[in-house]
Design brief:
Elements: E1 5-6, H1 9-31, E2 36-42, H2 46-61, E3 65-71, H3 77-89, E4 95-98, H4 108-114, H5 126-134, H6 142-155, E5 162-166, H7 173-182, E6 186-190, H8 197-202, E7 206-209, E8 227-230, E9 234-235, E10 247-248, H9 253-256, E11 262-263, H10 271-289
Parallel strand pairs: 1-11, 2-3, 2-4, 5-6, 5-7, 7-8, 8-11
Antiparallel strand pairs: 9-10
Helix pairs in contact: 1-10, 6-7, 6-10
The structure holds NADPH dihydro-nicotinamide-adenine-dinucleotide phosphate.
């Protein structure tokens, strides 16, 4: 069997960001203001700071307004909820993202529930989860929507294909399964209690791995020609003399290349799609919030 095709998420995300930029310019021309994304960061978590910085840069580069709110780690829940409420009613803000994880004393579910579903560009609010479940339009979490874009770009119609999603989190696994189901795939969700995971994966034309365990999915688990989307981001222990270990996904990439039909690399696969889809959701929110039509299928 020949080498799997590499699904270049970085290149796809760059094109998506370009299309978002075009729509953001159209939005500004139609409404007289820029689309706006507010990002709230509580505390000093280094990884979260990196994410927030790159979201800010990408938002500005797409021609949108970025509002950053950095709050100290000991911020009270009441103060955080008050900020969310202020952003909910601010007409310059189309999307609100509260960077997770929050410090332990803050209730993440209560904070997410306080965000207006119409500004919930992360798609984590129960109203948006419910809309996805019943097939109404709302906001879909960025990572699974990005995976779906890569899959449909590669495979076109997914009707009747066997899809196995490994992982059942609210932010990746469950919405991913829902999107695949909506696209008429036959979907199995696997998790830590699944029996014979290799046997379940072997059936799959599409494998989405969202587990958080380095290189857990082995080449011999895969069906010949399967399309593999690797959501996992895991850092291996550093090699001797290095200060940082290598980043790997949940799939044994080198081995899988000899069996899969196509596979996303880590890094450079799903990761870059997440921010691009966040920008996409924000510009969609802007059109909806102003009551303007966004031409279907443009982004
Ligand atoms: P969670 O920890 O919330 O969920 C992990 C899931 O994997 C759970 O459903 C768990 O099952 C399942 N699982 C754990 N161990 C096994 C096992 N041995 N066999 C089968 N299933 C198992 O993680 P997330 O969904 O938040 O993230 C998953 C991965 O994706 C992480 O590596 C994360 O870093 C990455 N990620 C990447 C993003 C990106 O932009 N590329 C964005 C978001 C996440 P159970 O429910 O039974 O415990």
């Amino acid at each position: 069997m020949s080498e799997a095709q590499v699904i270049d998420g970085k290149a796809f995300a760059a094109k998506l960001r370009e299309r978002v930029g075009e729509q953001a310019a159209k939005f500004e021309a139609a409404s007289g203001r820029k689309a706006g994304l507010a990002v709230v960061l509580v505390g000093e978590d280094p990884a979260s700071q990196v994410y927030v910085r790159s979201k800010h840069k990408a938002t500005v580069a797409a021609g949108m307004e970025s509002f950053e709110h950095r709050l100290p780690a000991d911020t009270s829940e009441a103060d955080l909820l008050a900020l969310v409420e202020q952003l909910n009613v601010d007409p310059a803000v189309d999307g609100i993202l509260v960077q997770l994880p929050l410090p332990d004393h803050l209730d993440e579910q209560a904070v997410i529930a306080a965000i207006s579903p119409d500004k919930d560009v992360d798609g984590f609010h129960v109203t948006n989860a419910g809309r996805l479940a019943v097939g109404q339009s709302g906001f879909v979490p960025c990572t699974p929507l990005g995976c779906m874009m890569l899959l449909t770009d590669r495979l076109g119609d997914l009707s009747g294909l066997e899809a196995v999603v490994i992982g059942r989190s609210n932010i990746v696994g469950k919405p991913m399964a829902q999107l695949l189901l909506d696209a008429n795939a036959t979907v199995t969700i696997a998790h830590s209690r699944t029996k014979d995971l290799p046997g379940v994966v072997k059936r799959a034309d599409i494998v989405v791995a969202a587990v958080g365990r380095a290189e857990m999915v082995k080449a011999e688990w895969l069906k010949d020609g399967a399309t593999v989307i690797d959501v996992g981001i895991n850092r291996l222990p550093p090699a001797e003399g290095a200060d940082k270990g290598r980043l790997v996904g949940d799939v044994d990439y080198a081995g899988a290349q000899g069996v899969a039909g196509a596979i996303t690399p880590v890094p450079g696969g799903v990761g870059p799609m997440t921010i691009a889809v966040l920008l996409r959701n924000t510009v969609v929110a802007a059109f909806r919030n102003e009551g303007l039509d966004l031409p279907e299928g443009t982004i």
